[in-house]
Amino acid sequence: MHAPVRVQPKKKKKAFWLKQLHSWHWISSAISLIGLLLFAFTGITLNHAADVEASPQTIEKTATLPAPLLRRIAPDDAADSKKPLPASIAAWVERETGSRATGEAEWSADEIYLALPRPGGDGWVSIDRHSGQMTSESTSRGWISYLNDLHKGRNTGAVWKWFIDIFAVACFLFAMTGLLLLQLHAAKRPSTWPIVALGLAIPAVLIIVFIH
């Protein structure tokens, strides 16, 4: 009978870390895959924003606030302020315009003005406090603009900003575990570090030579 082969502690340790790094590498890549595709694509569209034609479409709507709701915003002597629309009025505005009436509105003696920015577009609602006349405008700049605004986190809200933070952490783990895997395999792949150095040198040279 042959004696059992003993695995050297150094090789056993390396095998353990290889397994751990491979696990974290594929998990982080799976989490960040769709985000990476989105941000890579919008990186190109943002870099060529002047070349991507946009055809903004604007929709205007008018309506009159029902009398019971009009009484809730009757003019008063209060100074100009910023506060959200009352829930019942916000719900009415959303039904009439199809846009979410959230956020702080600007209240003056004669008018309530609510800005409605969103990814890929813009909008606003104005309500006359005397007559109840509502005027709204909604502008859409197309899906490329929408994706570009997602890339920048422009008018996307807190949930999307949290997603960007989590996505950034996943990308960081993906890159760092990839770097550590390169280190573990570098002994058998002599070109590893020259290629990594080239990846650092190219943007550094471009920044030094062409960006001032």
Would you give an account of this structure?
With about 210 residues, the chain is α+β, with helices and mostly antiparallel strands. The protein folds into two domains: about 15-50 and about 155-210, no CATH class; about 55-140, no CATH class. About 55% of the residues lie in helices and about 15% in strands. It has six helices and six strands, in the order αβαβαββββααα. It has helices at about 10-45, 65-70, 85-95, 145-150, 155-185, 190-210; strands at about 55-65, 80-85, 105, 110-115, 120-130, 135-140. The protein has a six-stranded antiparallel sheet, with helices on one face. Helix 1 crosses helix 4 and helix 1 (about 10-45) crosses helix 5. The longest helix is centred in the N-terminal third of the chain and has 39 residues, at about 10-45. The chain is elongated, with a radius of gyration of 28 Å. The termini are far apart. The model has no long low-confidence stretch (mean pLDDT about 90). Pfam families: PepSY_TM_like_2. Keywords: Membrane, Transmembrane, Transmembrane helix.
Quick recap of the structure?
The protein has helices at 9-47, 67-70, 87-97, 143-152, 157-185, 192-210, and strands at residues 57-64, 81-84, 104-107, 111-115, 121-128, 133-140. It has 212 residues and is α+β, with helices and mostly antiparallel strands. Keywords: Membrane, Transmembrane, Transmembrane helix.
The H/E string reads HEHEHEEEEHHH
Q: If you compute it from the alpha carbons, what radius of gyration comes out, rounded to the nearest whole angstrom?
A: 28 Å
The description of the largest β-sheet is: 6 strands, antiparallel
Strand percentage lies at 15-25%
Number of separate strands: 6
Helix content estimate: 40-55%
Protein name: Membrane protein
Organism: Sphingobium herbicidovorans (strain ATCC 700291 / DSM 11019 / CCUG 56400 / KCTC 2939 / LMG 18315 / NBRC 16415 / MH)
Keywords: Membrane, Transmembrane, Transmembrane helix
Transmembrane segments: 159-181, 193-211
